[in-house]
Amino acid sequence: MSRLVLVANRVPDPGERGATAGGLAVALKDAVTRRDAVWFGWSGATAEATSATPREAVHGRLTYATIDLGAADYRQYYQGFSNGALWPVLHYRLGVARFDREDWIGYRRVNAAFAAALAPMLRADDTVWIHDFHLFSLAAELRALGCKQRIGFFLHVPFPPRQVFAGLPHAQSILEALAAADVIGVQTGDDAGNLRDALVAIGQAETAPKVHAFPIAIDTAGFATLAARRFRTKEVDRLRLSLAGRALAIGVDRLDYTKGLPQRIAGFGKLLERFPRHRAKVTFLQVAPVSRGDVAQYRALRRELDEMVGRINGQYAEPDWGPIRYITRAVARPTIAGYMRLARIGLVTPLRDGMNLVAKEYVAAQDAEDPGVLVLSRFAGAALELDGAVLVNPLDADDIADGLDIALSMPAEERGARWQRMAAAVRSNTAATWCRDFLAALEDGAAARD
Ligand code: ADQ
User: Do residues 348 and 374 lie in contact, with contact meaning Cβ atoms separated by under 8 Å?
Assistant: First the structure.
């Protein structure tokens, strides 16, 4: 089998294995354990200048190859164009985006630098799989250097309707660069439709058929085992005892404005206001470690949340009950898995999300004998697969409150039936099938599912 070369903005820490590894590392585990592989990308460190050659670290069949980013490249490529412009636009938030011509130049420069550092490492029969919006131009840069390998690209975040994407300066260059990939994967059929439309509108109709949906998934059996094991530990006992028999609702997110946290907290406040019978009967635990804390919008979000949580707690707390527990420190993944199993409600309400793996993890973590209810945003990619969830409009605090009321009042039989439907979905599409489906489309030209 040919070697697989994964490219992503960040390369996971080789030490983060198994239970502690998150997101992409878990999703790609199947692909990298079955064959020789290279994982190429940014080390996470900044230096005076971006490295011209990667540092390599061999771990069995997997080689990590990393480069440092120069300070200006970090600012323009990563903070500027990737996080400041692409992230909001791809999440339908043109008004939040910050555009700067220098950032775009830096973005192109770093994509070219990735290509220049990677190309000498490539063997003729390698398969290259590029991940996410930081590297939209990388396939084209590799082609410009003469690389003829199969190249796949997967976008982890949504692709908005073409009229929204057109608001991004240089939108056309980005779409044109994508044509260099052989297969372009997105999370859902909606994203695929939007991206195809955008390609056709700029005269790239021949690229549109390369776009397919491959909904990302989790290691369902692994997460279920982790949750069941962790459920019986002291940390989860501590939480259980502190609830004193009350229901637990849990939210687990990075602290990001796309995750709908203010609206979610407002929704929980509306539940207590409009449905007094739930007061002192349910506790909401939100875990949201700070991410991108050096960006002004994220600092403002944190202040807003601090204030909202304080107000609602002040208004409704009893001497022996506080409505909201809000943690901005990181909590270890295995512990989160145990908490999810304890929670009667998983509250996942992003304003827009490519997929949202937390929703799938919550389903996997449940006890089949007494499962909880998932209250899920209609605008998360996961909503298309998890039709047993109580779906809500994440922008509408009253709708979130209604969803919470439905979930808290739901008879055990309905809870079980809804969970069975969702459990079947997360068992049939897993991280391993996701990897295999994408690579089959890229390497064998296998027809994608959509
Ligand atoms: P993210 O926006 O990071 O990912 P998500 O899919 O929800 O969002 O989470 C990724 C992983 O991080 C999950 O395994 C989750 O458990 C973990 N995680 C999130 N918050 C955490 C917390 N507070 N503590 C511990 N762990 C936490 C992007 C896209 C998503 C897409 C993924 C994968 O934005 O839409 O689902 O990539 O493609």
Answer: yes
**Residue 24 Cα to ligand 1 middle (Å):** 9
Q: Please say whether the beta carbons of 315 and 355 come within 8 A.
A: no
Tell me the torsion sign for CA atoms 394, 398, 404, 410.
negative
What is the model's pLDDT at position 18? 47
Confidence band, pLDDT 50/70/90 cuts, at residue 262 = very high
List the beta bridge partners of residue 70. Answer: 47
Could you give the residue numbers annotated as active site? 156, 353
Please tell me the distance from the alpha carbon of residue 271 to that of residue 184, in angstroms, as a whole number.
42
Percentage above 70 pLDDT, the chain: 96
User: What's the gap in Å between 87 CA and the centre of ligand 1?
Assistant: 15
Residue carrying the six token digits 């109709």: 205
Question: Which residue has the least CA distance to atom 38 on ligand 1?
Answer: 156
Q: Do domains 4-217+431-445 and 220-428 have the same CATH topology?
A: yes
**Which residue's CA is the closest to the ligand 1 atom numbered 28?**
156
Encode pLDDT of 214-240 as tens digits.
999 999 999 999 999 999 999 999 999
Fold of 4-217+431-445: Rossmann fold (3.40.50)
Q: Which of 325, 358, 376, 430 to mutate to test the pocket of ligand 1 (most atoms within 8 A of CB)?
A: 358
Summarize the confidence of residues 102-131 as an average pLDDT. 98
Ligand 1, residues at Cβ distance < 6 Å: 22-23, 156-157, 216, 252-254, 287-289, 330-331, 333, 336, 353-358, 361
pLDDT of residue 20: 45
Indicate which residue's Cα is closest to atom 21 of ligand 1. 253
For the chain, what percent of residues have pLDDT higher than 90? 91
Domain extents for the chain? 4-217+431-445, 220-428
What is the CATH topology of the domain spanning 220-428? Rossmann fold (3.40.50)
In this predicted structure, what is the pLDDT of residue 22?
58
23 CA to centre of ligand 1 in angstroms: 6
pTM of the predicted model as reported, rounded to 2 decimal places: 0.96
- Asked if 376 and 392 touch (Cβ cutoff 8 Å), the reply is yes
Report CA(19)–ligand 1 centroid distance (Å).
Answer: 15
> What is the Cα–Cα distance from 276 to 269, expressed in whole angstroms?
11
Angle (deg, nearest 10), helices 261-274 and 397-409 = 60
Distance CA 347, CA 177 (A): 38
